[in-house]
Write the structure tokens for this entry.
Amino acid sequence: MTVTKNEIGFNAGNILNLLTIRGRLSLRQIGEMTHYKDVSITMAIGWLLREGKVLVYNEDGKLYFDLNRSVSEIYY
């Protein structure tokens, strides 16, 4: 399976929109709502982490993701 940077970016955008609407979600919840495989979700989350747009929480061995609301984008 070959995954392109565009596909990862597209998935990241969809997950970011989902977190904006739903708030904090687990890996499983994201998978159920998007029908993405775990590997696609983790690549997209990695993309969003690199951009500083999400936070990751580990609660009892279960991963949760939420928006990083402390980030403000500056446009010039």
